[in-house]
């Protein structure tokens, strides 16, 4: 009874997290290779890297269940996450202590998992490489990160690296439909497609947005999905492009886009992302397209640096200026 109540309150991303290697929905080559390592008792130090939500942490948690009995988890596994302090003191203290203590009653090697390891300082990573070498007969390390470039080469060379690529729609869809069926969710085909499009290959994001949309609207459609996450809808992007390319005055264009942002709670960053995708579906001379994309990139760079959205929104009016001045000239000269 208590277990059922606990499952009901769990977020879907945790409730439907695969618990064994056989349940994982992608990266068959990686899973089969790691399974072979475990079966033959030849597990090396591991380095998992790739975008969020692609199964890195889930894979190593499934490996733990295959390596150890449930009663051995506390004594055989040490897991540190980004929320923990992982400076040089933790490496020299907690990690070193755990690695140096041998187990008497349990067979096999211990496992130390360093999740989000790209947040570790260079000093901590340099201290870690000596521990990896010294206690290899007793401990295996699994280093997990999003950006491989933030892991020092000395650590990379000591581990077997596996890249977890973004999931393909054909890999996401069966798991998505399974969750929808289990939770009795009303979801349309365009709603499922919107979830997959927004996720960018991130399974965690698919399930989180699915649950949020279901809780908010009780019906998962394309419009509801976009509304739930505050993302511009296709019709909104068409309107924005129409205003930018056909507006008569600067004030008219900026006021219309500002009003849309306010009413629908849109972020300028998301608008620029969708405008970028829209432009690639529009027939424009290559030179014109390149110049427009460069200007969009400059606006996005200023937004990423923390600039105010209002001046950057005004910079989008560049499209109207281009339309009225040199854009026709570029098209004419190209033809």
UniProtKB/TrEMBL annotation:
GO terms for biological process: DNA repair; DNA-templated DNA replication. One of its GO terms (cellular component) is DNA replication factor C complex. Residues 42-170 form the AAA+ ATPase domain. GO terms for molecular function: ATP binding; ATP hydrolysis activity; DNA binding; DNA clamp loader activity. Pfam families: AAA (PF00004), Rep_fac_C (PF08542). Keywords: ATP-binding, DNA replication, Nucleotide-binding, Nucleus. CDD domains: AAA, HLD_clamp_RFC. It is found in: Nucleus. The keyword Glycoprotein does not apply. SUPFAM superfamilies: P-loop containing nucleoside triphosphate hydrolases, post-AAA+ oligomerization domain-like. The keyword Nucleotide-binding applies. InterPro entries: AAA+_ATPase, ATPase_AAA_core, DNA_pol3_clamp-load_cplx_C, DNA_Rep/Repair_Clamp_Loader, P-loop_NTPase, Rep_factorC_C, RFC_lid. Coiled coil: none annotated. Belongs to the activator 1 small subunits family. This is Activator 1 subunit 5. It comes from Lutzomyia longipalpis.
């Amino acid at each position: 009874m208590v277990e059922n109540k606990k499952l009901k309150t769990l977020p879907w991303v945790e409730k439907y997290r695969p618990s064994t290697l056989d349940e994982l929905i992608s990266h068959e080559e990686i899973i089969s290779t790691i399974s072979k390592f475990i079966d033959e008792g030849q597990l090396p130090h591991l380095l998992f890297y790739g975008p969020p939500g692609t199964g890195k942490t889930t894979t190593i948690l499934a490996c733990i269940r295959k390596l150890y009995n449930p009663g051995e988890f506390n004594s055989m596994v040490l897991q540190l996450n980004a929320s923990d302090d992982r400076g040089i003191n933790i490496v020299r203290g907690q990690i070193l202590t755990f690695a140096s203590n041998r187990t008497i009653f349990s067979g096999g090697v211990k496992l130390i998992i360093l999740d989000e390891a790209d947040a570790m300082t260079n000093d901590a990573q340099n201290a870690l490489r000596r521990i990896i070498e010294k206690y290899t007969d007793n401990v295996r390390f699994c280093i997990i990160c999003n950006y491989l470039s933030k892991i020092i080469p000395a650590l990379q060379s000591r581990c077997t690296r596996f890249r977890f690529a973004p999931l393909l729609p054909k890999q996401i869809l069966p798991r998505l439909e399974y969750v929808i069926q289990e939770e009795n969710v009303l979801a349309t085909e365009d709603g499922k497609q919107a979830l997959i499009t927004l996720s960018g290959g991130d399974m965690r994001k698919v399930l989180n947005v699915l649950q949020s949309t279901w809780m908010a609207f009780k019906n998962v459609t394309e419009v509801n999905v976009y509304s739930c996450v505050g993302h511009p809808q296709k019709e909104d992007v068409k309107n924005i492009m129409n205003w930018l390319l056909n507006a008569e005055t600067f004030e008219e264009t900026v006021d219309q886009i500002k009003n849309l942002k306010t009413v629908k709670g849109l972020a300028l960053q998301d608008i620029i992302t969708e405008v970028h995708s829209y432009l690639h579906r529009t027939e424009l001379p290559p030179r014109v397209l390149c110049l427009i994309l460069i200007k969009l990139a400059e606006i996005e760079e200023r937004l990423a640096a923390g600039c105010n959205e209002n001046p950057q929104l005004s910079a989008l009016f560049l499209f109207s200026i281009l339309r009225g001045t040199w854009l026709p000239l570029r098209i004419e000269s190209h033809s």
